[in-house]
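Exercise: predict the fold of this chain.
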Amino acid sequence: MTSTLETHGLAYLPSLHRTVDTNYVVVAHLPTELRPDDILVTDQATFSVKLVRDGVSRPYLDLSSWCKAHVWSTAVAPDRKHVYVSMSGMRGPIANMVGVEGSSAVLEVDTETGKLTRAFTAFRGGLGHPYTDMFIDIAGIVVSPDGQFIYTCDFNGWQGNGKVIAIDRSTGVPSVLVDGLDQPSTLSLDGPYHLLVANTRQPGGQASGGQVVRIDTRSGASTVVTDIVDVEASLIGVVRLDSGDLMATMSEGTQDQCFVIRINGETGEWRRVWHPEPGFIGSGIHSDGKVVWVAETLRARVYAITPDGDPVRFHQIHDDVDLADPKKMIRGFDSLEAVTVVS
Protein backbone atom coordinates (compact mmCIF):
# COMPACT_ATOMS: atom_id res chain seq x y z
CA MET A 1 0.00 0.00 0.00
CA THR A 2 1.30 3.45 -0.86
CA SER A 3 0.37 7.01 -0.05
CA THR A 4 1.14 9.93 -2.35
CA LEU A 5 0.90 13.66 -1.72
CA GLU A 6 2.12 16.63 -3.71
CA THR A 7 3.25 19.91 -2.25
CA HIS A 8 4.44 23.02 -4.04
CA GLY A 9 7.44 25.26 -3.70
CA LEU A 10 9.02 27.75 -6.06
CA ALA A 11 12.27 27.59 -7.98
CA TYR A 12 14.15 30.42 -9.63
CA LEU A 13 15.76 29.62 -13.01
CA PRO A 14 18.33 32.32 -13.79
CA SER A 15 18.65 31.22 -17.42
CA LEU A 16 14.92 31.77 -17.92
CA HIS A 17 14.70 34.79 -15.58
CA ARG A 18 11.53 33.55 -14.03
CA THR A 19 10.11 31.61 -11.13
CA VAL A 20 8.34 28.30 -11.72
CA ASP A 21 6.43 25.82 -9.59
CA THR A 22 8.30 22.94 -8.01
CA ASN A 23 6.46 19.72 -7.19
CA TYR A 24 7.74 17.32 -4.55
CA VAL A 25 6.12 13.90 -4.64
CA VAL A 26 6.53 11.17 -2.02
CA VAL A 27 5.30 7.60 -2.34
CA ALA A 28 5.36 5.93 1.07
CA HIS A 29 5.40 2.18 1.39
CA LEU A 30 3.18 1.46 4.38
CA PRO A 31 3.49 0.82 7.24
CA THR A 32 5.78 3.79 7.85
CA GLU A 33 5.92 3.85 11.66
CA LEU A 34 9.50 3.73 12.89
CA ARG A 35 10.96 1.70 15.75
CA PRO A 36 14.20 2.02 17.69
CA ASP A 37 17.13 0.44 15.82
CA ASP A 38 15.44 0.78 12.44
CA ILE A 39 17.95 1.90 9.80
CA LEU A 40 17.14 4.37 7.02
CA VAL A 41 19.40 4.39 3.94
CA THR A 42 19.23 6.94 1.12
CA ASP A 43 19.69 5.46 -2.35
CA GLN A 44 20.47 8.17 -4.89
CA ALA A 45 20.33 5.78 -7.84
CA THR A 46 16.61 5.18 -7.30
CA PHE A 47 15.68 8.49 -5.60
CA SER A 48 14.50 6.53 -2.58
CA VAL A 49 14.91 5.74 1.09
CA LYS A 50 15.18 2.12 2.20
CA LEU A 51 14.19 0.79 5.61
CA VAL A 52 16.21 -1.97 7.27
CA ARG A 53 14.40 -3.74 10.10
CA ASP A 54 15.58 -6.95 11.73
CA GLY A 55 18.25 -7.25 9.06
CA VAL A 56 15.84 -7.09 6.11
CA SER A 57 15.76 -4.17 3.66
CA ARG A 58 12.54 -2.95 2.04
CA PRO A 59 11.31 0.17 0.19
CA TYR A 60 10.25 2.97 2.52
CA LEU A 61 9.98 6.25 0.57
CA ASP A 62 10.20 7.03 -3.14
CA LEU A 63 10.81 10.72 -3.83
CA SER A 64 10.69 12.83 -6.95
CA SER A 65 10.66 16.43 -8.10
CA TRP A 66 10.43 18.21 -11.44
CA CYS A 67 14.21 18.67 -11.69
CA LYS A 68 15.12 15.29 -10.19
CA ALA A 69 16.67 16.83 -7.08
CA HIS A 70 18.83 14.25 -5.37
CA VAL A 71 17.88 12.46 -2.18
CA TRP A 72 20.75 13.09 0.21
CA SER A 73 20.05 12.21 3.85
CA THR A 74 17.39 11.59 6.49
CA ALA A 75 16.74 12.60 10.09
CA VAL A 76 14.07 11.47 12.53
CA ALA A 77 12.27 13.59 15.13
CA PRO A 78 12.89 12.54 18.75
CA ASP A 79 9.31 11.28 19.09
CA ARG A 80 9.65 9.34 15.79
CA LYS A 81 6.45 10.94 14.46
CA HIS A 82 8.17 12.63 11.53
CA VAL A 83 11.06 11.78 9.24
CA TYR A 84 12.90 14.50 7.33
CA VAL A 85 14.56 14.05 3.96
CA SER A 86 17.05 16.49 2.43
CA MET A 87 16.71 17.01 -1.32
CA SER A 88 19.75 18.53 -3.02
CA GLY A 89 19.43 20.61 -6.17
CA MET A 90 22.46 18.90 -7.58
CA ARG A 91 22.57 17.05 -10.89
CA GLY A 92 19.06 17.47 -12.18
CA PRO A 93 18.86 17.51 -16.00
CA ILE A 94 18.59 21.30 -15.81
CA ALA A 95 21.08 21.67 -12.97
CA ASN A 96 23.93 19.90 -14.81
CA MET A 97 25.69 19.23 -11.51
CA VAL A 98 25.16 22.70 -10.06
CA GLY A 99 22.26 23.70 -7.90
CA VAL A 100 18.96 24.79 -9.37
CA GLU A 101 18.04 27.56 -6.97
CA GLY A 102 14.87 26.50 -5.23
CA SER A 103 14.90 22.83 -6.12
CA SER A 104 16.56 21.99 -2.80
CA ALA A 105 14.15 21.31 0.04
CA VAL A 106 13.74 19.52 3.32
CA LEU A 107 10.66 17.29 3.19
CA GLU A 108 8.63 16.29 6.25
CA VAL A 109 6.81 12.96 6.20
CA ASP A 110 4.31 11.88 8.87
CA THR A 111 5.40 8.40 9.94
CA GLU A 112 1.89 7.46 11.13
CA THR A 113 0.19 8.16 7.79
CA GLY A 114 3.10 8.16 5.33
CA LYS A 115 1.96 11.53 3.98
CA LEU A 116 4.19 14.38 2.91
CA THR A 117 3.08 17.17 5.22
CA ARG A 118 5.52 20.03 4.59
CA ALA A 119 8.35 21.07 2.29
CA PHE A 120 10.77 23.57 3.79
CA THR A 121 12.41 25.90 1.27
CA ALA A 122 14.04 29.32 1.45
CA PHE A 123 11.42 31.03 -0.70
CA ARG A 124 9.68 34.01 0.84
CA GLY A 125 7.18 35.80 -1.37
CA GLY A 126 7.68 39.51 -1.94
CA LEU A 127 11.38 39.47 -1.08
CA GLY A 128 12.68 39.44 -4.64
CA HIS A 129 15.24 36.83 -5.67
CA PRO A 130 14.58 34.19 -3.02
CA TYR A 131 17.58 31.89 -2.95
CA THR A 132 20.76 33.93 -3.02
CA ASP A 133 21.70 33.16 0.58
CA MET A 134 20.72 29.53 1.26
CA PHE A 135 19.09 26.31 0.08
CA ILE A 136 21.22 26.00 -3.06
CA ASP A 137 22.46 22.45 -2.41
CA ILE A 138 21.07 20.85 0.75
CA ALA A 139 22.97 17.80 2.00
CA GLY A 140 23.40 16.37 5.52
CA ILE A 141 20.57 16.83 8.02
CA VAL A 142 19.84 16.27 11.75
CA VAL A 143 17.09 17.18 14.22
CA SER A 144 18.04 18.83 17.53
CA PRO A 145 17.66 16.62 20.63
CA ASP A 146 14.77 18.79 21.87
CA GLY A 147 13.04 18.53 18.49
CA GLN A 148 12.86 22.30 18.03
CA PHE A 149 15.19 22.71 15.07
CA ILE A 150 16.28 20.94 11.91
CA TYR A 151 19.90 21.59 10.96
CA THR A 152 21.17 21.02 7.44
CA CYS A 153 24.25 21.73 5.32
CA ASP A 154 24.22 23.82 2.14
CA PHE A 155 27.38 23.17 0.11
CA ASN A 156 26.42 25.84 -2.44
CA GLY A 157 27.28 23.99 -5.63
CA TRP A 158 30.89 23.44 -4.51
CA GLN A 159 31.44 27.19 -4.99
CA GLY A 160 32.56 28.02 -1.44
CA ASN A 161 30.73 30.07 1.19
CA GLY A 162 28.88 26.96 2.34
CA LYS A 163 26.46 27.25 5.22
CA VAL A 164 24.70 25.46 8.04
CA ILE A 165 20.99 26.28 8.09
CA ALA A 166 18.59 26.10 11.03
CA ILE A 167 14.90 25.48 10.36
CA ASP A 168 12.45 26.22 13.16
CA ARG A 169 10.09 23.21 13.16
CA SER A 170 7.20 25.16 14.69
CA THR A 171 7.23 27.99 12.12
CA GLY A 172 9.04 26.37 9.19
CA VAL A 173 11.24 29.46 8.86
CA PRO A 174 14.89 28.81 7.88
CA SER A 175 17.84 30.97 8.85
CA VAL A 176 21.60 30.82 8.37
CA LEU A 177 23.29 29.58 11.54
CA VAL A 178 26.86 29.68 10.16
CA ASP A 179 28.27 30.82 6.82
CA GLY A 180 31.74 31.22 5.35
CA LEU A 181 32.45 27.49 5.32
CA ASP A 182 34.00 25.68 2.36
CA GLN A 183 31.64 22.96 1.12
CA PRO A 184 29.97 21.39 4.17
CA SER A 185 28.70 17.92 3.24
CA THR A 186 27.22 16.42 6.39
CA LEU A 187 26.79 17.08 10.08
CA SER A 188 26.08 15.15 13.27
CA LEU A 189 24.93 15.92 16.80
CA ASP A 190 27.66 16.40 19.39
CA GLY A 191 25.72 16.76 22.62
CA PRO A 192 22.56 18.84 23.17
CA TYR A 193 23.90 22.15 21.84
CA HIS A 194 26.66 21.36 19.36
CA LEU A 195 27.10 20.04 15.84
CA LEU A 196 30.08 18.44 14.13
CA VAL A 197 30.34 19.47 10.49
CA ALA A 198 32.36 17.73 7.78
CA ASN A 199 33.58 20.86 5.99
CA THR A 200 34.75 19.46 2.68
CA ARG A 201 37.73 21.05 0.94
CA GLN A 202 37.43 20.62 -2.81
CA PRO A 203 38.68 23.70 -4.67
CA GLY A 204 38.04 23.44 -8.38
CA GLY A 205 36.81 19.90 -7.86
CA GLN A 206 40.18 18.76 -6.49
CA ALA A 207 39.74 16.59 -3.40
CA SER A 208 42.06 17.87 -0.70
CA GLY A 209 40.93 17.00 2.81
CA GLY A 210 38.77 19.30 4.89
CA GLN A 211 38.03 20.51 8.39
CA VAL A 212 35.98 19.11 11.23
CA VAL A 213 34.13 22.15 12.57
CA ARG A 214 32.25 22.19 15.89
CA ILE A 215 29.33 24.62 16.03
CA ASP A 216 27.44 25.92 19.06
CA THR A 217 23.79 25.94 18.00
CA ARG A 218 22.91 28.60 20.59
CA SER A 219 25.33 31.24 19.33
CA GLY A 220 26.59 30.02 15.96
CA ALA A 221 30.16 30.15 17.24
CA SER A 222 32.40 27.68 15.42
CA THR A 223 35.71 26.02 16.25
CA VAL A 224 37.96 24.00 13.97
CA VAL A 225 38.53 20.67 15.73
CA THR A 226 41.02 19.33 13.21
CA ASP A 227 42.27 20.19 9.72
CA ILE A 228 42.96 17.26 7.41
CA VAL A 229 45.58 18.15 4.79
CA ASP A 230 48.01 16.48 2.40
CA VAL A 231 45.55 13.85 1.22
CA GLU A 232 43.93 13.31 -2.20
CA ALA A 233 40.51 12.68 -0.73
CA SER A 234 37.81 14.90 0.73
CA LEU A 235 36.34 14.77 4.21
CA ILE A 236 32.62 14.03 3.77
CA GLY A 237 31.25 12.71 7.10
CA VAL A 238 32.09 12.82 10.82
CA VAL A 239 30.70 11.48 14.11
CA ARG A 240 31.85 11.39 17.77
CA LEU A 241 32.62 8.18 19.66
CA ASP A 242 32.03 7.62 23.38
CA SER A 243 35.81 7.71 23.85
CA GLY A 244 35.95 11.29 22.59
CA ASP A 245 37.66 10.31 19.35
CA LEU A 246 36.03 10.97 15.98
CA MET A 247 35.30 8.71 13.03
CA ALA A 248 35.12 10.23 9.58
CA THR A 249 34.61 9.22 5.96
CA MET A 250 36.84 10.31 3.09
CA SER A 251 36.02 10.24 -0.62
CA GLU A 252 37.42 11.13 -4.01
CA GLY A 253 36.22 10.77 -7.60
CA THR A 254 36.79 7.00 -7.59
CA GLN A 255 36.69 4.37 -4.89
CA ASP A 256 40.49 4.30 -4.71
CA GLN A 257 40.39 7.11 -2.17
CA CYS A 258 37.25 6.15 -0.24
CA PHE A 259 38.03 5.11 3.31
CA VAL A 260 37.16 5.61 6.98
CA ILE A 261 39.52 7.32 9.41
CA ARG A 262 39.74 7.63 13.18
CA ILE A 263 40.71 11.04 14.57
CA ASN A 264 42.28 11.46 18.01
CA GLY A 265 39.92 13.71 19.95
CA GLU A 266 42.77 15.48 21.76
CA THR A 267 45.55 15.81 19.19
CA GLY A 268 43.57 15.81 15.93
CA GLU A 269 45.89 13.20 14.46
CA TRP A 270 44.19 10.69 12.19
CA ARG A 271 44.77 7.25 10.77
CA ARG A 272 43.05 5.14 8.15
CA VAL A 273 41.11 2.24 9.71
CA TRP A 274 38.89 0.80 6.95
CA HIS A 275 38.90 0.67 3.18
CA PRO A 276 36.68 -1.96 1.49
CA GLU A 277 38.98 -2.17 -1.57
CA PRO A 278 37.23 -1.70 -3.86
CA GLY A 279 34.46 0.28 -2.28
CA PHE A 280 32.54 3.51 -2.54
CA ILE A 281 31.59 5.04 0.81
CA GLY A 282 28.67 7.42 1.35
CA SER A 283 28.92 10.69 3.23
CA GLY A 284 26.20 10.24 5.84
CA ILE A 285 27.44 8.03 8.67
CA HIS A 286 25.87 7.26 12.03
CA SER A 287 27.25 6.18 15.40
CA ASP A 288 25.77 4.98 18.66
CA GLY A 289 29.12 5.82 20.29
CA LYS A 290 30.46 2.29 19.98
CA VAL A 291 30.06 1.28 16.32
CA VAL A 292 29.77 3.37 13.19
CA TRP A 293 27.32 2.62 10.38
CA VAL A 294 28.64 3.30 6.86
CA ALA A 295 27.01 2.83 3.45
CA GLU A 296 29.07 1.11 0.72
CA THR A 297 27.67 1.35 -2.80
CA LEU A 298 29.51 -1.28 -4.87
CA ARG A 299 28.21 -4.13 -2.72
CA ALA A 300 24.94 -2.31 -1.89
CA ARG A 301 25.50 -2.78 1.83
CA VAL A 302 25.55 -0.87 5.09
CA TYR A 303 28.28 -1.94 7.48
CA ALA A 304 28.69 -1.57 11.22
CA ILE A 305 32.38 -1.12 11.96
CA THR A 306 34.25 -0.81 15.23
CA PRO A 307 36.44 2.22 16.08
CA ASP A 308 39.41 0.13 14.93
CA GLY A 309 37.81 -0.48 11.54
CA ASP A 310 36.63 -4.06 11.98
CA PRO A 311 33.28 -4.81 10.28
CA VAL A 312 31.07 -6.62 12.78
CA ARG A 313 27.95 -7.01 10.62
CA PHE A 314 26.29 -5.74 7.46
CA HIS A 315 22.87 -5.54 5.85
CA GLN A 316 22.26 -6.05 2.13
CA ILE A 317 20.19 -3.14 0.76
CA HIS A 318 19.44 -4.66 -2.63
CA ASP A 319 20.56 -7.77 -4.47
CA ASP A 320 21.15 -6.62 -8.04
CA VAL A 321 24.94 -6.56 -7.67
CA ASP A 322 27.66 -9.06 -8.49
CA LEU A 323 29.24 -9.53 -5.08
CA ALA A 324 32.06 -11.57 -6.60
CA ASP A 325 33.02 -8.75 -8.96
CA PRO A 326 32.04 -5.28 -7.71
CA LYS A 327 32.15 -2.88 -10.63
CA LYS A 328 34.46 0.09 -10.62
CA MET A 329 32.63 3.41 -10.61
CA ILE A 330 33.29 7.10 -10.42
CA ARG A 331 31.12 9.41 -8.40
CA GLY A 332 27.97 9.86 -10.42
CA PHE A 333 25.56 10.69 -7.61
CA ASP A 334 24.01 7.26 -7.85
CA SER A 335 25.31 5.96 -4.55
CA LEU A 336 24.03 4.79 -1.19
CA GLU A 337 24.66 8.16 0.39
CA ALA A 338 23.59 8.22 4.04
CA VAL A 339 22.68 5.98 6.98
CA THR A 340 20.43 6.97 9.89
CA VAL A 341 19.81 4.66 12.86
CA VAL A 342 16.53 5.41 14.65
CA SER A 343 16.77 5.91 18.42
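Check your answer against the key: Residues 2 and 192 are 36 Å apart (CA to CA).
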